[in-house]
Amino acid sequence: MKDRIDNLVLLLQDGKPYQVGDLNFGMISKNILYVTGYTNYSDLNNLSKSKALEELSCIKNTFNDMVNYSEKLRTFIQGKKIKFNLAYNYGKGGFGICTEKDGKIEWIIRI
To answer: How far is CA 69 from CA 1, 4, 31, 64, in A?
Structure first.
């Protein structure tokens, strides 16, 4: 896992996206990192706002675990804003459900 996180930092420094585990990472700009995870729900009719927020929280917790594990990642994100995304993957593509940046939730789809 440490090698994957170290590779993540190197690729993000070059502006390239990368996946570690179930999370996708990339740079929106020099100072904004996105972290995207995917819902476990295959039928969005069963997804409520509270469940979506739980899944978004899980994405954030996983990212924070990675930051605590890796000094390189911890150093890299200093001074950067983090945008967390919960998305739906339908196989050939995907779309956003909600995002969180600076503690503010934005709903992309109506649930």
So the answer is: 9, 12, 22, 9
**pLDDT digits 0-9 by tens, 78-95:** 999 999 999 999 989 999
List, edge to edge, every strand of the sheet that includes 81-89.
18-20, 23-29, 32-38, 81-89, 94-101, 104-107
H helices present in 44-97, as ranges: 49-69, 71-77
CATH number for position 78:
3.30.70
Distance between CA 39 and CA 28 in Å, rounded?
21
Selected residue with higher pLDDT from 1 and 98: 98
Find the domain containing 46 and state its range: 2-107
Q: Could you give the number of structural domains in the chain?
A: 1
